[in-house]
Design brief:
Layout (H helix, E strand, L loop, with lengths): L2 E9 L2 E7 L7 H12 L9 E6 L6 E7 L4 E2 L3 H13 L7 E6 L2 E10 L2 E8 L23 E5 L2 E9 L3 E6 L8 H9 L9 E9 L2 E8 L3 E2 L4 H13 L9 E5 L2 E7 L5 E5 L2 E9 L1
Parallel strand pairs: 2-3, 4-6, 11-12, 13-15
Antiparallel strand pairs: 1-2, 1-18, 3-4, 4-5, 6-7, 7-8, 8-17, 9-10, 10-11, 12-13, 13-14, 15-16, 16-17
The structure holds 2,6-diaminopimelic acid.
The site of 2,6-diaminopimelic acid has 18 residues, from helix 2 and helix 4.
Enzyme class: isomerase
Main location: cytoplasm
GO cellular component, one term: cytosol
Amino acid sequence: MNQFSFTKMHGLGNSYIYVNMFEETIPESLLSPLAVKVSNVNTGIGADGMILICPSKTAPVKMRIFNSDGSEGKNCGNGLRCVAKYAYEHGMVKDRSFFIETLSGLVKAEVTVENETVTNVTIDMGKPRLKRSEIPMVGPEAERVVAEPFAVDGQLYEITAVSMGNPHVIFYVDDINKAPVTTLGPIVEKDKRFPEGVNVEFVEVVNDHELHFRVWERGSGVTQACGTGACAAVVASVLNGKTARNKETVVHLAGGDLTITWTDEGNVRMTGPAETICTGVYYY
Ligand SMILES: N[C@H](CCC[C@H](N)C(=O)O)C(=O)O
């Protein structure tokens, strides 16, 4: 019987099973099936996926994220805040500000510490990618996708697409509580116009610095929160003239609030909590 130690953590209810790969060894071929198994609330531990905290040549730690369907994502905002908390509290970094490597590049973390516990984390998520080829989305490579007509499921919508290293498509709604998250979400997630699939976000604009937000995640379905998605929603809202550039915007997600700014320098900064739920041993 094989086993590995894990820590279950969450960012605004977006929970993952974290595995410290400085201490554990899991064959690469088992990572995807294990992400499916550990995510199952009945036969596994229960989470939105699995996140590996790995050695890196370019930063103190590297994050890899697997969705609950076993697919590997390229970035994870809530995950980054939890990885930053884990790394600081486990003495893997000494400073309160440090880099984390992701599959979509380096990001910078800054932890807030009270009584040796990380209570809040700011991640500089870098610059959003806005060209179709970067989302990726089919169509003229250098074009942006802002308020573009999008026919799907027999209806005509308007979409804005943003990558934060992973693909996001944003639909604006008048009432977040009536957003078609579980009906339209799974259809758009696998729409062929997004060759790598897409995270699907629904946004209700409150004012020029406040949004309501719900998400159907690629590979995980409905989650309580999506950090990269919230960043994409803020960028989309600035591009659509609905929120202000370089101004702290509060995004209300099902699991709580994130504060996000798309700075004039071009980077997106996200601040929010990260919490440890439990530790344990998983047998497989
Ligand atoms: N929940 C994550 C996003 C996971 C993205 C993943 N669903 C994908 O891109 O495939 C977050 O906080 O940013």
